[in-house]
Amino acid sequence: MMVVVGCTPPGPLSEGEGLPRPAATPSQRGTTSPRPSPGGEGVASRALENIDSLMWRQADSALKVMMEFAASPEAESLNEFEGHYCQVLIAELLYKNDYGQSNRKDLLKAVHYFDSIVGMDGYGTDTRGVSVQERDAFLAARAHYINGAGYYERDSLIEACEEYLDALRMMEGHFEEKVLAGHKARFMALTYNRLVELFSKQFMQEPAIYCGKQSLIYSRIAPTTPYAVSNVLYRIGKQYDKLKVADSAAYYYDRALEIMPDRNNLIYRDIISSRALFDYEWHHDTIRALDSLKRMATQAANETERLHRFPAIGNIYQDIGQYDSAKAYLMPVFESENEAIDKKLAARVLHIIAISEGDTLNASQYAQILVEDVTSTANKQLRNSQLNDLFQKYLQEKQETALALERLEARRRNLWIGGMVALLAIVGLAVAIVTRRSHRKRLAAQEAEAQRRLDEASQRLSEASQRHDAAERELQTKVEQATLHTKEVLQQRAMALYHGKEKDKLQRILAEFDGAYPKTYERMMAAYPDLSGQEYELCVLGYFDFRAKEIAQLMDLQEGTVYRYRSTIRKKTGADDLEALMGRFLD
Question: For the whole model, what pTM was predicted?
Answer without folding.
Answer: 0.63
